[in-house]
């Protein structure tokens, strides 16, 4: 889930339909993205600067939350994953990392 929080605009490759991510331990990886998901990202980016007042600089974070008059990277992912996994996984919450392992991803 850190990969999602730390995703920068420069990591999005719309032509190749890929996202370049930096995984745990500094491992670089490339993730293929389905055409519908690419469109979802484009739709989000179309409203991102107005709604969240985010920069379009290559180094800017993709997912933002609004704080006062500015934007900050979205960091609520871990709390949301723990909250919602608790409802379906025998009342035990999972970290984003454990959820990825549970889903067959590491």
What does it look like?
- The protein has 106 residues and is of the alpha+beta class.
- The protein folds into 2 domains: 2-74, Intergrase catalytic core (hpI Integrase, Chain A), CATH 1.10.443; 76-106, no CATH class.
- It has helices at 2-5, 35-52, 77-88, 96-102, and strands at 12-13, 18-22, 28-32, 64-67, 70-73.
- The longest helix has 18 residues, at 35-52.
- The protein is globular, with a radius of gyration of 15 Å.
Would you kindly provide a brief summary of this structure?
This protein is of the alpha+beta class and 106 residues long. The chain has two domains: 2-74, Intergrase catalytic core (hpI Integrase, Chain A), CATH 1.10.443.10; 76-106, no CATH class.
Tally of helical runs: 4
What's the CATH first level of the largest domain? Mainly Alpha
What percentage of amino acids are in beta strands? 15-25%
CATH architecture of the largest domain: Orthogonal Bundle
Q: Sheet bearing the most strands, described?
A: 3 strands, antiparallel
How many beta strands in the DSSP annotation?
A: 5
Task: Give the integer mean of the pLDDT values.
Answer: 80
Uncertain runs with pLDDT below 50, 5 residues or more? none
Shape: globular
Structural class: alpha+beta
The CATH superfamily label of the largest domain reads Intergrase catalytic core
Along the chain, the helix and strand elements come as HEEEHEEHH
Query: Percent of residues in helical segments?
Result: 25-40%
Strands ordered across the widest β-sheet? 1-2-3
By CATH, the topology of the largest domain is: hpI Integrase, Chain A
